Amino acid sequence: MKSGSSPQEVQEVSDRLSELGYMVNPIFGVEKTVIGAVGGPELDKIEAADQLKAYTGVEDVIFITKPYKFVARESRKANTVIEVGEVKIGGPEVVMMAGPCTVESEEQLFKTAEAVAASGAKVLRGGAYKPSTSPYSFHGMGVAGLELLREAARRFHLKIVTEVMHVRKVDEVAEYADILQIGTRNMQNYEILREVGQLRKPVMLKRGMTAKLEEFLLAAEYIASGGNENILLCERGIRTFEPYTRNTLDLSAVPALRSLTHLPVVVDPSQGTGRRELVPPMCKAAVAVGADGLLVEVHPNPDHAIKDGAQSITISAFQEMMPELRAIAGAIGRSMQSDASPVG
Ligand code: PEP
Ligand code: MN
Predict the structure, then answer these.
(1) Tens-place pLDDT, residues 14-70
(2) Which ligand is nearest to the CA of 239?
(3) What is the phi/psi pair of residue 52, to 5°?
(4) Ligand with an atom nearest the CA of residue 125
(5) Architecture of domain 82-331 in CATH?
(6) Could you tell me if 312 and 270 are in contact, meaning their C-beta atoms sit under 8 angstroms apart?
(7) Is 93 helix (H, G, I), strand (E, B) or coil?
(8) pTM as predicted
């Protein structure tokens, strides 16, 4: 329905659909009402759509063959560009998000933030709340870590992406984060998805390590159907039979998602490979296949990192990689910052 369509117009369309034999399901969004209609006679669908297009209040009639609607490519012709202040993700610029896996100390975080910002990163990553396979591992600095992220981001003009692990922590993390990260283990935590769907802040949803693309998009649909369409999808590798790499980075997911959805796609080759030497080549490949952003773990001393040292690259490896990524971005008609100069 058009924005501002009246309850009566919505009712008229719903009534007509019921008469035609459809099960009718209106979804009342912040701006728009979408009337879902399922189960009608297959043969009459085109005629029914033609009729309904003539109703006042109807903006468009879209055939839904996919189980997700808001995030589907069909629902929006243009790519969605997520605006994080002046940083735009999903536009011509490929955005680098970098930082340590985990916030460990002021020195570690600030050193990394300063270096990645100088090499062109726009967003600082770092976990203050960390999911861990073992209950005995380090689980992050919590609020103290969030405070450090805020200070580092302020000082080096970066935005913050950090993980929220629990529905009770959404408000707290949202106070500090510019982008809320939902980790692979929580991709199907429907309570958190609904909760961040109530925010109007960008959310970076990581693909579940065993999730099919359809399940991934349905998880994003949970967020979008709550009214928050500021969603970045992050491919971070999936479980396969191959143990050499921590996960198998599914780069074919990038162009596949680009055709299935209007949402931007970010690639995380750090969790995706688990091996530091594979991170720069996979970053290059990710840019080449059309990623809108990269999420990379960088540590001043990876061998002493509390978490994910094996997949964290050094500051010098990051500095070497950035101009190469910029060259690849340029070759496919996009841009990427590889130093601290303003975008342009
Ligand atoms: C991370 O980004 O450090 C992380 C834990 O990611 P994932 O949820 O993809 O494992
Ligand atoms: Mn990590």
Answers:
(1) 999 999 999 998 898 888 899 999 887 766 777 888 899 999 999 999 876 677 889
(2) 1
(3) -65, -30
(4) 1
(5) Alpha-Beta Barrel (3.20)
(6) yes
(7) strand
(8) 0.83
